[in-house]
């Protein structure tokens, strides 16, 4: 049985006291580990948020990282640095990184391999654009994105997130049927180990639509952007994950 997992991606939002305040509220709202919970603040807030989460059930994540331990990579953050602050998860291949920063499948695979080497759990995002969906290319795109990652799968350590790009930050959530269809496709590609690997759905998950998605056995949790910035909304999604 796969445990539900709710992960918050703060993107380039929140720092200083505001970040600490949100983390504190989320920490106080989670009193057991019935559901796994992670928040990924911007890099600069990781030390404060990490300290705030200490002693609680909420895990710390990062939104990206480089694949080398150190070197001449101006502006980059090494997996090794993340470990210093208690980071356990790292989001890789988010569509914003692919589209805005030109990250390609091979780079994402290198980062995934590095995360596993450093004992960080990668949350690898895959998903199609609206035009790819309309042209009937959804499964081809996802298969291509999975191809470089599948050989790296190390027992249960990778988490996948199906994030249809047309649903991210748009308020247009995928229907449970659409999400389940793609989750089944991804699980099928993972082979036997697929039964043990968590596949989250991401894209406009809010308290109002969380139940319809999370009650699906195929949907092992959610990667939440906008709604994770509001502790009340984020805790409400977590509470739904506990009850389905
Ligand atoms: C995300 O950033 O991964 C995401 C799913 O964002 P939102 O929930 O805001 O659509």
Attribute tags:
244 residues, alpha/beta, TIM Barrel, globular
Topology:
Elements: E1 5-9, H1 16-29, E2 36-40, H2 46-53, E3 58-62, H3 79-84, E4 87-92, H4 95-100, H5 105-117, E5 121-126, H6 130-134, H7 138-147, E6 159-162, H8 176-190, E7 199-202, H9 207-214, E8 221-224, H10 231-243
Parallel strand pairs: 1-2, 1-8, 2-3, 3-4, 4-5, 5-6, 6-7, 7-8
Helix pairs in contact: 1-2, 1-10, 7-8, 9-10
The structure holds phosphoenolpyruvate.
What does this structure look like?
α1 (16-29) packs parallel to α2 and α9 runs parallel beside α10. The protein has a single domain, classed as TIM Barrel, CATH 3.20.20. Strands 1-2-3-4-5-6-7-8 form an 8-stranded parallel barrel, surrounded by 7 helices. The longest helix is centred in the last third of the chain and has 15 residues, at 176-190. It has 244 residues and is an alpha/beta fold. The protein has 10 helices and 8 strands. The protein binds phosphoenolpyruvate. The site of phosphoenolpyruvate (PEP) has 14 residues, from β8.
